[in-house]
Amino acid sequence: MKTPIRTYIAATLFVAIGLLATNVSAASKDPAKPNVVILFSDDAGYNEFSLHGAELFPTPRINSIAANGVRFTNGYVSGTVCSPSRAGLLTGRYQNRFGHEFNIPPVYSDSNGLPLEETTIADVMKQAGYQTIALGKWHLGYAPKFHPMERGFTDFYGFLQGARSYFPLEKPTRLNQLLRDREPVRPESFEYMTDELAIAAADYISKSEDRPVFMYVAFNAIHTPNHVLQSDLASLGEDTRQAKHRAMTIALDRAVGTVLDAIDQQGIKDNTIVIFLNDNGGATGHDNTPLRGKKGSAWEGGIRVPFVMQWPAKLPRGKVIDEPVIALDIFPTVMKAAGVSQSPGLPLDGTDLTPFLTGKTQTAPHDTLFWKSGANWAVREGNLKLVVANGGSGKPELYDLSEDAEEKINIAAQHPDQVKKMETMYQQWKKDFPAPTWGGGRKKK
Questions:
Q1: CA-to-CA distance for 79 and 57, rounded, in angstroms?
Q2: Against a cut of 0.90, is the pTM above it?
Q3: What is the pLDDT of residue 282?
Q4: Contact at 8 Å (CB) between 379 and 391?
Q5: Which candidate, 133, 112, 113, 111, places its Cα nearest to that of 122?
Q6: Which of 22, 45, 327, 438 is the 20 to 30 A CA-CA neighbour of 303?
Q7: Which one, of 388, 370, 390, lies nearest residue 431 by Cα?
Q8: Whole-angstrom Cα distance, residue 228 to residue 192?
């Protein structure tokens, strides 16, 4: 008989408390080496977090990160779908620069994966003396050379493919099997993947023995398949697709809480940067209200995501930032926090957010942001956004996001010079990009 998940979580945290009692300290308390925990959810809708006012999707633990730190109302990812978004986050560079424009096809390949020439944030943090831990969904290549432990991570517990069952598999494939470092876990034995990843994160935190930790927790929640714990679903009193999304979100928020509690119990909360964000806009069937579009489009509903960050030792509590930021900023922000002045790899597209967040500078982090996914593309300059999106007319559409975040009022006809200017900016931005390394099923421009 399997141990009920809440009992398992309680037992894990009891062990963590016991470690403290025996003076086995965990992770870094050195202000010069803050711990970093990135919590990355998958395919959730913008309006599926109470952070954004969604009453049917209570996310109190995710909300607490914003309460203890900063909420970005214009937080973006650099990709419109899963794998490109991850490539951008981990390299700090627009993934289009190295051909990683579409999702990696779900078949084994020796060539398809995050290019080996790219430096990851894990590479940098490992060189800075951090234990670098990847948990959950990888989706950046299946061949051994693309494995997380070849890309800067000292530890890995997760799976390589872009999706898999939330429950143990009797006959997994080499792409969706659960791995501990490089070895398959046989038999798979856990109750529910979302909780399992959080329990593993808490365990790593409790055993890090004063070494600073960089942890990347890539939940597959709430990507399909819509697998739920029956106890979570039963608490809602219905069994619909939306109810399953709600139940999966309950588990996601609980998992975030498990990680936050482990950080707190180890006495490292003040010295730990925690960032939560989603990998792209909500997929089909999810609620992105009030944003237009969904996963795969360059409208706001495809790229604007929940994005919150806490670092109690450095950042103010409850601050709301309306200036645009992007997941590419995570790399330089945590790199500088770790005392690394410059990445040893190629130039970064992200910006260190700390001076802006602490008030040392009033200059917004970005003048312009860009997106490209096949025929879908967009440029944001200040509050103006030029977009060609899935289902659009084929002509660029111009929106003033300060007054029209829903992208309902196309003002392109009234501002032809601005349209031309931003089209030129886009063409200049992408002029040296290679062709996408693998196809995305749409015509490329």
A1: 25
A2: yes
A3: 97
A4: no
A5: 133
A6: 438
A7: 370
A8: 8
